[in-house]
Amino acid sequence: MLSSLLSTVIAVILSVIVMGLGWVLAKRAISDREKNSPFECGFDPIKSARLPFSMRFFLLAIIFLIFDVEIVLLFPVLASMTGSFSLPLMIGTFIFLMILILGLFHEWNEGSLDWAQ
Fold first, then answer.
1. Is the pLDDT of residue 15 over 90?
2. What pLDDT digit, counting tens, does each position of 41-98 carry?
3. Residue 89 to residue 72: CA distance in whole angstroms
4. CA dist 31 to 36, 50, 95, Å?
5. Inside any domain, residue 115
6. What is the pLDDT of residue 28?
7. DSSP E strands, the chain
8. Where, by residue number, does the polypeptide cross the bilayer (predicted)?
9. Nearest-angstrom CA–CA distance, 93 and 100
């Protein structure tokens, strides 16, 4: 009990010291206009470095990540099917795949997959 309390106190004190040291060292960085501006071969930048991002491309990337993660969730099902056949596992996998297919058709009908318009 005493040792866990002591280690907690030491961890908190060490964290405060490290944060304080980082804060003090960060104050030494001098903010300079030349250092904060983007560099384009020695010339002044022609356009802004922060261009507007295509929201349709962003949504397509998010949809891809969602479906990619859902496909990864199917790998343990495939691994468990090699050992033995289980009817509840098959029903659950079928329901999961139907939800994926319905979501894909919904995105397709909504037009979210046509990002090059």
1. yes
2. 666 666 666 667 777 777 778 888 888 888 888 888 888 888 788 888 889 889 999 9
3. 16
4. 7, 20, 57
5. no
6. 60
7. none
8. 6-26, 57-79, 85-105
9. 10
Q: What is the pTM of this model?
A: 0.49
Quote the CA–CA distance of 99 and 83 in Å, as a whole number. 25
| Cβ-contact 19, 77 below 8 angstroms | no
Q: What is the mean pLDDT of the chain?
A: 80
**Amino acid 47: pLDDT:** 65
Number of domains the chain contains: 1
Is 63 exposed, middle or buried (CB count within 10 Å of its CB: 0-12, 13-18, 19+)? Answer: middle
CATH code, domain with 99 = 1.20.58.1610
3-state secondary structure of 39: coil
List, in sequence order, every residue forming a beta bridge with 43; answer none if it has no partner: 40
Q: Quickly list DSSP for 82-111.
A: HH---HHHHHHHHHHHHHHHHHHHHHHHHT
Task: Check: CB of residue 100 under 8 Å from CB of residue 70.
Answer: yes
